[in-house]
Automatic annotation (TrEMBL):
<dbReference type="InterPro" id="IPR036396">
    <property type="entry name" value="Cyt_P450_sf"/>
</dbReference>
<dbReference type="GO" id="GO:0016491">
    <property type="term" value="F:oxidoreductase activity"/>
</dbReference>
<keyword id="KW-0560">Oxidoreductase</keyword>
<dbReference type="InterPro" id="IPR002401">
    <property type="entry name" value="Cyt_P450_E_grp-I"/>
</dbReference>
<dbReference type="InterPro" id="IPR017972">
    <property type="entry name" value="Cyt_P450_CS"/>
</dbReference>
<keyword id="KW-0349">Heme</keyword>
<keyword id="KW-0408">Iron</keyword>
<keyword id="KW-0732">Signal</keyword>
<dbReference type="Pfam" id="PF00067">
    <property type="entry name" value="p450"/>
</dbReference>
<keyword id="KW-0503">Monooxygenase</keyword>
<dbReference type="InterPro" id="IPR001128">
    <property type="entry name" value="Cyt_P450"/>
</dbReference>
<feature type="signal peptide">
    <location>
        <begin position="1"/>
        <end position="20"/>
    </location>
</feature>
<protein>
    <recommendedName>
        <fullName>Cytochrome P450</fullName>
    </recommendedName>
</protein>
<dbReference type="GO" id="GO:0020037">
    <property type="term" value="F:heme binding"/>
</dbReference>
<dbReference type="GO" id="GO:0016705">
    <property type="term" value="F:oxidoreductase activity, acting on paired donors, with incorporation or reduction of molecular oxygen"/>
</dbReference>
<dbReference type="GO" id="GO:0004497">
    <property type="term" value="F:monooxygenase activity"/>
</dbReference>
<feature type="binding site" description="axial binding residue">
    <location>
        <position position="437"/>
    </location>
    <ligand>
        <name>heme</name>
    </ligand>
</feature>
Length: 494
């Protein structure tokens, strides 16, 4: 055991020495300011359990563009809207590639997944398919009936708890609904059905995938240790990937068989759409599987955590909850279910979602970028190979941009021409530039529809002994920005 540890330490010191020589040879490069790193471990101790918050605090000292060492990885952190514009728009081409985590490389995930592919021909092909064939308004309008049924089931589920006077774990209910909204949009089936063994298996696999992906991995901080997979993260994630891809492959195989049957009637879901264009667009089953995996991994947890935060903030601010419900009743009418087409005429509900995304972006540190060449920003150099982190959490709470930045005030967005589509860099929960989240159009529909339906159908009260003054509002950093304590609230008939 001691010889094994000695070997690792020797490799680590060798790596540090080589990096030090390289740094010396590039000593003329003017890096952004930042905290002094410790030998070997860099600035890791300063990140803590909430790195988005720690980095925001460091930015107040060192500025909106700063450099630090996360282990042995040179990292540039962006913490203001103006600096984000330079990274995500002005220098997008040079900074659009990804710094791929070791966990993502399991089972060739980095080779296929849209979020992690370099800006290559394959990536452009898959983005084109998303933009032209999957997430257009026309396509989403055509398959919205698949999602409507899932919202009705969510309301019916909550109604049962309402009659029983029982509290609901909002995050769990939202996650199940988000999985079913996605699986019906993709396959026209439920994948969060408690009565189905295969559905339970898929949901558990997806949950395990996200839990493992959210764990800090020493291999990401010390790249020379990647092959060793010291924590076993890559090994465990590889098992999850293999099993999930097998489940997805079964759905594709079943649909291919159905399409060969006499009298087959096509669906409006994503799978049929992709099969219809597969020959002309030169995409295959591997592309399908990894695209669907990306949608589930990126969509289910981000949507459910954002909805949980939105309802948390509304319960914490009863006046805002009342305003949102009044708007829904006025525009849609009592007893009428909310439809996706209603979203455009619900400005206060839109403001609630924007304010939630400002305070609680699901991915507080946008997916890491990587400099393909040396890039000059505001007189500083982002060196080739450096990791670039955009702190969307810090930007959303920047006092120079937002009045009372830590307060939940949806009214700030009424009459303000700011959206989350990557055009306004003070609000970029989905990113911006060519790497903006391709599923944004679907995510926005799902968020508004779920939240609006829950607000319109029920009032909400906290469990006994919990008040708006003492309710937990703490965050937990992981693959998404979750509540430290799940929101449990009691639905009340209205």
């Amino acid at each position: 055991m001691q010889s094994w540890i000695s070997c690792i330490l020797w490799l680590l010191f060798t790596w540090v020495w080589v990096k030090a020589l390289k740094s010396f040879s590039r000593g003329s490069i003017k890096l952004p300011p930042g905290p002094t790193p410790w030998p070997i471990i860099g600035n890791l101790p300063q990140l803590g359990h909430k790195p988005h918050k720690s980095l925001a605090d460091l930015a107040k000292v060192h500025g909106p563009i700063m450099s630090l060492k996360i282990g042995q990885v040179t990292t540039v952190v962006i913490s203001s809207a103006s600096m984000a514009k330079q990274v995500l728009q002005d220098h997008d081409a040079a900074l659009c590639n990804r710094n791929v985590p070791d966990s993502v490389s399991s089972h060739q995930k980095g080779e296929y997944g849209i979020p992690w592919l370099p800006a290559s021909t394959q990536w452009k092909k898959l983005r084109k398919i998303c933009n032209l064939h999957i997430f257009t308004s026309q396509k989403l309008d055509a398959n919205q009936d698949l999602r409507r049924k899932k919202i009705q089931q969510l309301v019916a589920f909550v109604q049962e708890s309402c009659h029983a006077g029982e509290a609901i774990d909002i995050g769990q209910a939202a996650f199940d609904t988000a999985v079913n909204l996605l699986s019906n949009t993709i396959f026209s089936v439920d994948l969060a059905d408690p009565n189905s063994a295969s559905a339970r298996e898929f949901k558990n696999l997806m949950w395990g995938l996200m839990v493992e992906s959210g764990k800090p991995n020493v291999s990401d901080f010390f790249p020379m240790l990647r092959k060793l997979d010291i924590q076993g993260v890559r090994r465990r994630l590889s098992r999850h990937h293999i099993k999930i891809l097998e489940v997805l492959d079964r759905f594709i195989y079943q649909r291919l068989k159905q399409r060969q049957e006499h009298g087959f009637v096509g669906s409006k879901d994503m799978l049929d759409t992709l099969l219809n264009i597969s020959e002309s667009e030169k995409i295959d089953r591997n592309d399908f599987k990894h695209l669907f995996l990306d949608l589930f991994a990126a969509g289910a947890e981000t949507t459910s955590s954002t909805l949980e935060w939105a309802l948390t903030e509304l319960v914490h601010s009863p006046e805002a909850l009342s305003k949102a419900r009044s708007e829904l009743e006025k525009q849609i009418g009592k007893g009428n279910p909310m439809e996706e087409s209603d979203i455009a005429r619900l400005p206060y509900l839109q403001a609630v979602v924007k304010e939630t995304l400002r305070l609680h972006p699901a991915v507080p540190l946008l997916i890491p970028r990587k400099a393909s060449v040396d890039v000059q920003i505001s007189g500083f150099i982002v060196p080739k190979g450096a990791q670039v982190l955009v702190n969307a959490w810090a930007i959303g709470r920047d006092a120079s941009t937002w009045e009372n930045p830590y307060s939940f005030k949806p009214e700030r967005f009424l009459g303000l021409d700011v959206d989350v589509k990557g055009r306004n860099f003070e609000l970029i929960p989905f990113g911006a530039g060519r790497r903006i989240c391709p599923g944004l159009p679907l995510a926005i529909r799902m968020l508004h529809l779920m939240l609006g339906s829950l607000i319109k159908s029920f009032d909400w009260k906290l469990e006994s002994k919990v008040t708006t003054e003492n309710m937990d509002m703490e965050e937990k950093f992981g693959i998404t920005l979750q509540k430290a304590q799940p929101l449990r609230v009691v639905p009340v008939a209205i």
